[in-house]
């Protein structure tokens, strides 16, 4: 049907054209002269002297100047043939008043031969062979299949009426875009046709192409590929410039695209994964998350502590995502190493002041980590060998240019480190870890792509000879990205995460046991992006996450063990949300990013919940009744709107002021009465007796770029209020407690501070200087005395460190040699000290100060590293990179914690340190 309709339309067009056919006898004659005129001026003169109106695009006439001529009583056709003879412009005279100009092509008023299947004979020719040679117009379709990549079209030559040639000369010159020198031996290939050529020693090529469209590729060693659609109308020249395609192993600095930090309404910290190789860290191990702690507002409770504290928040208030799957403990070996393979990471973005509405479930920040896509072109890989760890990652195509797979793994041989620690009890300890990651990415079509990722980590350590601790992370994700059109796209993701630990105790007595804990979550998320216009963008979707927590179980180990088996009831929770964000350019200078996320959390059975007597403190003795809930029965529902609003106003093109407001909910908490996070901290879901945490944060900042982005400067202040922050009574029993709510306290928190960052991103010397002044407080004020801490007043949190200063610098002597330094200074964190003692009934008792009234000594550390890169030749089997570093050059004995013991009736203060001496290391990295 479509073919028949096309046929009718073309016949109708021919009939219309025949009414306006032009002959030389009917053509008016013209007398005209012009001297050194451009082509457009000549056309204007013709229009003034005749009834003809020309139709064309102005750019076609550019470059045709200095035209001169004197014409007396000539036809319009002869005049135009003479004027356009040296150009690629053709003309078609339509009726008595229209002249249509075209580039290269000719407008025909008859159809090409065999268009409808029959052979058309040229009846006017006396030669039978020539009569069968129908002159076929060149049809170059501009319609492209949406499933194919767009290829630029280049038109060569000028079509001539009456030409019957099937091939034309195609020649030109190929040069190097960087040096300007000719490229010899470049290969010119025409897809699908037995045509080819090579450039000579001077970069010239000369070949023939069939009339019409040809897909031409030009390839040269170490140069970017060239692929164009060349439409041949006649002989013509086309010169080509190819750029070099060289993989250079240069220093990669921490930076976003130019002015992104100024322009974006939502400020995010972008970390280039490669940057960590130039920062001297413990034992030479590359670590993206350690790089993050050198930036303002992000810190840890101490050297070797797991978890991160962002803007005065607890470590459990950070959402750490790996391809949309949650990683609960991203640390190996007591926080010394990251549990994430740096070779596998592609993007690392951190949101700490304005969290987009698509993220939920945490109060302080989002670490959104993405793995890189596996190579679909060639087999490649990267590996490193250090004093403690070995790491390798390989990538290989599965379907050429469509699909690839990436597999990586790390392992540790760390026991010799423990043997050199100051703590005598740790010298006989053992520790090992490994992590593996795999990713498959497949571009089904240009608009459809799937990604699958699997990650697993495991740590084994024995601090004492009678205990073995094991903890594991598992993360799985499956994502489908689809682009409907230029305005609409969608992402469907399914993710599963698990964190678990196990403790095996095998002592000298008969109380051996095996204790286990696990948390498992599964999330389904459907997200859409809609580009309404250049000034308005929408991001919206829904998500739902199911938590399943095994709070703990203990079993006797061995037949002689007297331990009674115990298993705490499983916890289940469903967290669902709908979100909508609109990014609106209200003016050229003012952009608003306004979002809302509505979260609903349901605590689910099967399980029991205690109801306590009103007007009495919670304890086992004040339980009024115990409620029983069936599987998936709703125990309690929490939730509400979460507002995410950010605005940016440009004072100048490189200077902006930003403000933001964030409200967030968190329905899951860590159970720990330690001052720092440990691998055996358990997670607890909100239920009938433990309410969700909530927070509101306000931020205002100035962002300025200098010297075309060479320098970045930012100054931002924040204020945060929190509710229902979980803490514990002094001496609380956390593990395997069936009535954990009797040991918990929930209170208010507040934090405020100012963050300063100066980055230099260009030149031989680059790096950044960051300073944060911040305070973090908590208030535990209950109705009863045992529920109050420090008389119900605000007191510093365990991670309150007012001053935090970092300096990261790298000096590049040459492209291969550089010197790096990392200096850190932090105020000592709070601690509770004994302030006195007394005797009662023959027993000695210690009196402690208010909680967190004192501080441990301040922390500072200097690290140095020397980086040596191999040469940058492209065709090497492998590209190498050496790092020679010394961690804690000054040998500073920074205390990790301070604790107290009583010996002979005297209270003594002791401190433990992780690295109290300089730690040298050498690491060899190579890519292949």
TrEMBL record:
Cellular compartments annotated: Cell outer membrane
Keyword Signal: yes
Keyword Nucleotidyltransferase: no
Residue ranges annotated for the TonB-dependent receptor plug domain, each copy included: 284-362
Span of the signal peptide: 1-23
Sequence ranges assigned to domain TonB-dependent receptor-like beta-barrel in this UniProt record: 463-888
PROSITE patterns cross-referenced by the UniProt entry: TONB_DEPENDENT_REC_3
Membrane topology note: Multi-pass membrane protein
Source taxon at top rank: Bacteria
Xref: SUPFAM superfamilies: Carboxypeptidase regulatory domain-like, Porins
Protein name (Swiss-Prot/TrEMBL): TonB-dependent receptor
Keywords: Cell outer membrane, Membrane, Receptor, Signal, TonB box, Transmembrane, Transmembrane beta strand, Transport
Family per similarity comment: Belongs to the TonB-dependent receptor family.
